[in-house]
Design goal:
Elements: H1 2-8, E1 14-22, H2 28-44, E2 53-55, E3 61-69, H3 72-87, E4 94-99
Antiparallel strand pairs: 1-3, 1-4, 2-3
């Protein structure tokens, strides 16, 4: 049992991520405003985050990790529920599921 538990820490899980709209790549003020908007949305939804983990990708979006799950199915279930809650509160924000990035990558 302890061996299986220790091994699971090495496996990558799945993230549920809030994504803001497209941003200009070099407009850091715009990116910061979108990050502030996502943080405020998380507060409005009552999601408690111990830290803000931001994901960068080629889509030029502010992306905030709001949950980590061991299985894709759990992440998808949460993403669907969160999507329903968000559409009643905020336009222009999407929810997506992505595989967790190894520390030091991405």
């Amino acid at each position: 049992m302890a061996r299986k538990h220790a091994a699971s820490h090495c496996e990558l899980g799945w993230w549920v991520v809030l994504c803001g709209g497209a941003l200009e790549p070099d407009d850091f003020d715009q990116r910061e405003r979108m990050r502030e908007r996502l943080v405020e949305l998380v507060r409005e939804l009552g999601i408690a985050l111990q830290e803000h983990v931001w994901v960068w990708d080629e889509l030029n979006q502010a992306q905030l990790v709001v949950g980590r799950f061991p299985s894709y199915e759990q992440a998808m279930d949460t993403a669907e529920l969160l999507s329903e809650r968000i559409k009643n509160v905020c336009d222009g924000v999407a929810v997506r599921v992505m595989q967790e990035l190894e520390e030091g990558r991405g």
